[in-house]
Each structure stands twice: as C-alpha cells, then as structure tokens.
Amino acid sequence: MVIADRIAAIRERMAAAALRAGRESKGVALVAVSKFQPASALEAAYAAGQRLFGENRVQEAEEKKRLLGSLLQGEDALRLELIGALQSNKVRKAVAAVSRIQSIDSVELAARVGRAAQEIGLTMPVLIQVDLAGEPAKSGVPERDLLSALQVLRAAEGISLDGLMAIPPFFDNPDDVRPYFARLRALKDQGMERGLLVRGELSMGMSHDFEAAIEEGATIVRIGTAIFGERPPRETA
C-alpha cells in the first residue's frame, strides 16, 4: 500500500472515530510523524494532501526544511512541528525551524522558547507536555503541577499556549489507555475554564490507539508507522 492509500485509510478511520464520539472529523488534525523518513516520503504525503508533519530532532527538522523549502511557502504550505524532546541548547534552532513545538516539558524550557522567539520577532505556538504516568524514560510537566505551571506561563511573552500533549504508557489493548486520555482532556478543560490556555488543542494518540484518543477528545493525533511503515534504519557515523 502506498503512502497516499495509507493516509486515505487513516483519515477514514479518524472520521469514523469522530462520528462515534459525536464530533466533526474536521476538528481532528493529523500530524504525520516523519522522523527518520527521507524527504521523498514527505513529498509523497504532501502530494496526497497531508500538510502537518512531526519531527523528533531539531537537526532533522532543519534538514527537512532545507530540502523541502519550496513546499514550505504559500497558503498551502507544508508545516513542520517538533514533537520530540527539546534540549535547551537547541531552542534557537528549533524556533527557526518549526511552526509549533508540541514538547514543552517545563516552565524553564517554555521561557527559553519565548525569549528565542522574541529575538526574531515571533510568537511560537506551543503545547505543554504532561507527564501522566511518571515513566522514567518520558518527560513532561507533572500532572499535579500543570495548572500552576500554566498560571506562570500564561503571562509569558513570545509563546502561545495552544494546549496540551502527552505520551501515555503503551498498552496492547487501546482501551486500556483511555483513562490517560480522559485525564489529559480533563486537564485541558480546567485550563480552558481558568483562561490559562489560548486554544484547547489536545495532542494524544498514535498509530495503535488514535481512534480511542479521538473518542476521548483528541484534536491532534500523531501517526507515523501507519503512514510511512516501519522506520528506516538510522545512518551511523
């Protein structure tokens, strides 16, 4: 199955999940996770109508931006978003390379991003990554600290608090992850009610559980393998 067929199939499943939840499918955005994929794969997805792409590393986002420059222009532009961990020493490069950062995992990092964005005359849209399970390998603002963090960041300049993102634990049965999705949705609702979020974006759900995520309120799903297939091996130095 080619990339265009996979995207069409995923969009059909997204629409069906939205319908089951009594939602409109246009309220859920698809981010194609293109980390480690060649530029040609992004071009194929773009030709199939895909416009949002997620990169894990700043260096790779910079390279994709260089290779795909012509597609990043105009009203119908391809957009790169950072969905992987952002190191503080890569903040300036990230702000220049991507259109949104989904992986802000601390107040300090958000402040750095804001300062870097102001230096080049931008306001960077961001999502705050929330740690829902305390897994050592995953980062994020602890769930218990989220609202106080948003309170601090609401007044920060150079960033726009678009919403929340999370990477819950992996379960073979997608239904088992629903409580985590529901908790993130509840946190988003609290943030919106208190005026702490500019928008109510909720980035959650990947290839194996995106339908459950949509049914629980996701407005962004991040899908890689189901679009591009298994990741190609990374080149080693």
Q: How many helical elements?
A: 9
Outline the biggest β-sheet.
9 strands, parallel
Structural class: alpha/beta
**CATH class call:** Alpha Beta
Q: pLDDT average, as an integer?
A: 94
Q: Per the principal axes of the C-alpha atoms, what is the gross shape?
A: globular
Order of helices and strands: HEHEHEHEHEEHEHEHEH
Q: State the helical fraction.
A: 25-40%
* Through-space gap between termini: 32 Å
Quick description:
The protein is α/β, with parallel strands linked by helices and 237 residues long. The chain has helices spanning 3-20, 39-47, 58-67, 91-97, 107-119, 146-153, 178-193, 210-215, 225-228; strands spanning 29-33, 52-55, 79-82, 100-104, 124-131, 141-142, 159-165, 201-203, 220-223.
Question: How would you describe what is shown here?
Answer:
It is a single chain. The protein has 237 residues and is of the alpha/beta class. It has one domain (3-228): TIM Barrel (Alpha-Beta Barrel), CATH 3.20.20.10. Helices cover 38% and strands 18% of the residues. It has helices at 3-20, 39-47, 58-67, 91-97, 107-119, 146-153, 178-193, 210-215, 225-228; strands at residues 29-33, 52-55, 79-82, 100-104, 124-131, 141-142, 159-165, 201-203, 220-223. Helix 7 (178-193) links the parallel strand 7 (159-165) and strand 8. The two termini are 32 Å apart.
